[in-house]
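Dear H.,

Thanks for agreeing to be a second pair of eyes. The structure we're designing against is below in token form, covering all 95 positions.
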């Protein structure tokens, strides 16, 4: 079976699956709600100096100075490969 995913499909995964949903529902990260902002425990430094951006659909850790798109976040939290992360996100869409 082919393991090829088109650039359009990968872009769709990064954009269509809301980063907040990846954090809370898919990866079950510990979160704190600050007014209308979601803060999550950074999978790298474990601090809460974080935010999500609904325009870019990225999660950012200000301490690590790192942005995570949904694929990055699944790879980092799940300690899995790019292909594994894509499959996890794809399975969610297919549900
Ligand atoms: Zn961090």
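And this is the sequence the design step returned. I haven't edited it by hand at all.
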């Amino acid at each position: 079976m082919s393991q090829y995913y088109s650039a359009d499909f990968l872009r769709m995964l990064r954009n269509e699956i809301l980063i907040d949903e990846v954090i809370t529902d898919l990866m079950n990260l510990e979160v704190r709600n600050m007014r209308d902002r979601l803060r999550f425990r950074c999978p790298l430094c474990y601090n809460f100096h974080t935010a999500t951006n609904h325009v870019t659909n990225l999660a950012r850790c200000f301490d690590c100075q790192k942005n995570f798109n949904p694929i990055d976040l699944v790879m980092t939290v799940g300690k899995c490969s790019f292909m594994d992360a894509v499959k996890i996100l794809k399975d969610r869409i297919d549900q």
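Two observations from my side: The first helix runs from residue 7 to 16. Residues 7-94 form a domain with the DNA Primase; Chain A fold (CATH 3.90.580.10).

Warmly,
E.
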